[in-house]
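LysR family transcriptional regulator, pasting as requested.
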Amino acid sequence: MQFSFASLSKRIRLFHLQILSEVYKQGSILAASRSLHISQPAISKVIHDLEEYFEQPLFIRTSQGMTPTDFSLMLNKHCNELQSNLHHLVDDLNTWQMGISGKVTVGNMLSASAEFLPKAIIRLKQLAPNVAVSVKVGTNDTLFPELINGTLDIMLGLLPTQAEENLEHIELYDETLSVVVGRQNPIAFSGDVDEWLRAEGITWIIPPLSSTAGQAAQAFLLNQGIEVPKQGIESLSVLTNLTVLLESNAVLLTPKTVVDRFVQLGILVELRQSSTSTTCGKVGYSIARNRLLTPACQRFIDLLHENTQP
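C-alpha cells follow.
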C-alpha cells in the first residue's frame, strides 16, 4: 500500500494519535483508558483500526501489557512531534486571544536548580502570570531525547562538551566547583583543610561521573591530589545532599551556584572552590533545531539572558 499526505489526513484523526501515544506511554489499554477517561473497547477499536489501515501490528499483547512493535516505535516518534507542534499551536492561539499565556516545559540539571532557574521563573510569573511552567529534573542523557522529540521546550544546565546534532546550545556563564560541608562538620573548624580532605574515610558526595559536572569533579579531585572515591555517593538531588551533609561528616563537591545560598545562610561551610580559570563547564540552555519556539518559551529565554550572572 502506498501512503500519501492526502490519504493520511483523510483517515487519521488527531484523536487516534493521542490514543496511540497514551497506550505506548502507559503500556496497557486499561491504564490508557483511565488516563484518557475513555472506555477500553473504544481504545481497542482505535488501535485495531490503525493496525488495519497501516497493515502492521502496533503492539504485542501479553499478560504483562502491550509491547510496542518496531513499526509502532517509529509511528510514535512522529506522533510525539505532531502533538508537540499542536501544543505550540494551542499556546499561539491562547496568546493571540488572551495576551501572554501558554506553557513552558523546562528540563533542568543540577547546576541550574538553586538560583538561576528559580529567578527566571519568578520573573516570568511576575510579567506573565498566565504562563504555566513545568520543570523536570535529570541529566543530559535522560532529558536531551525529550527535548528532541518535543516533550521539553528547553533544557537548562551545564552544556555538553560535544554538541548534539539536533540541538542548539547557547552559553550564558562559566560555572566553578565548590567543596562544602555541614556547619557541624569538624573539617569546618580545622586549620588544615587539605590534610582533612586527603584523609581516608572521608565520604565524598559528587555528581554522577557520567554527567558533565561529574567529569569536572573528577578532574578537580585529581588536580588536588585526591583519589576519586570508589565508595562515595553520586547524587544530583539537592535536598538529599543537604540532608546528608547536615546529618553526617560527608563532603560535597558540586557546582558552586548550587550551594551558594546555603553557604550565605550559614547552613553549609565552603572549604574550597575551583579558580575562575579552571571552570567545570559552561552553563546555558539547549533548544531543538528547526523547531519554532512558543511565545511563552521565547519570553522565558529573554529572561534567562537578563539573569546571566549566577
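Note for the archive: The mean pLDDT is 85.
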